[in-house]
Amino acid sequence: MADEVVLLDFWPSPFGMRVRIALAEKGIKYEYKEEDLRNKSPLLLKMNPVHKKIPVLIHNGKPICESLIMVQYIDDVWKDKCPLMPSDPYQRSQARFWADYVDKKIYECGRKVWTTKGEEQAAAKEEFIGCLKLLEGELGDKPYFGGEKMGYVDVVLVPFYSWFYAYETCGNFSVEAECPKLVAWAKRCLEKESVSKSLPDPHKVYDFVLHLKKRFGIE
Predict the structure, then answer these.
(1) Domain locations in the chain?
(2) Which stretches make up the GST N-terminal domain (predicted)?
(3) Pairing, β 5-9 against β 56-59
(4) Which of 18, 26, 176, 182 has the fewest CB atoms nearer than 10 Å to its CB?
């Protein structure tokens, strides 16, 4: 019996992009269902009753929630093609550590850049750039965080590249000027079809951020 795979998602979500990239890397066909987060579907509420958030991966009727867990699940289930996690236990632990760091820092720090002004925004920019520099240091001279091939941490982090333009424009700074190696890495990832087809146009993301700023009264 063929696998039935459904992804409940919202197009600008960097968390959903991770899952899209992982599925594309594995060559998995799936049904994409776009969610309206202001009017969540009964299916989303049923499949993720705890957090009621996207993304949700539904595999043969069973839900998997939280993007880091979903990417690992995809790697475990379809392990024969394009492994994302290292085989060495220590390397796996390090990949999980940096993925956790990205999850805890990048989204929230980036969000502060476009939701604040003045001194608060200056502090947010400094913190955000500091986080990126730390990640750039971890990347070092490797082509990918996964080494010679794109791996788990790459899949977890690269979706935020589609948000960089919004952060830069709202915060009046350049990620490339601060972290040239990290931007070169992101562009390298974008050469892969699994990434380029999973990430939205950065200008479209910026328009979405402007819409949010207006909705929340952040001018």
Answers:
(1) 5-77, 89-215
(2) 3-82
(3) antiparallel
(4) 176
Tell me the average confidence (pLDDT) per consecutive run of 10 residues in the chain, 219 residues long: 90 98 98 96 98 98 98 96 96 97 96 95 97 98 96 98 98 97 98 98 98 89
121 CB contacts (<8 Å, ≥6 apart)? 112, 113, 171
User: If you write DSSP's letter for every residue of 66-120 in order, what string do you get?
Assistant: SHHHHHHHHHHHTTTSS--S-SSHHHHHHHHHHHHHHHHHHHHHHHHHHH--HHH
Please report the pLDDT score of residue 77 as a whole number.
97
89-215 folds as Glutathione S-transferase Yfyf (Class Pi); Chain A, domain 2 (1.20.1050)
Contact (Cβ atoms closer than 8 angstroms) between residue 157 and residue 196: no
pLDDT at 1: 54
Cβ neighbours of 113 (radius 10 Å): 25
Q: What is the pLDDT of residue 207?
A: 97
pLDDT at 216: 87
According to DSSP, the β-strands at 62-65 and 56-59 are: antiparallel
Domain range 5-77, its CATH number among 3.40.30.10, 3.40.50.720, 3.40.1440.10, 3.90.1150.10: 3.40.30.10
Please, where are the H alpha helices in the chain? 14-26, 42-47, 67-77, 89-115, 118-139, 152-157, 161-171, 175-178, 180-190, 193-196, 202-215
- The strand pair at 31-34 and 5-9 is best described as parallel
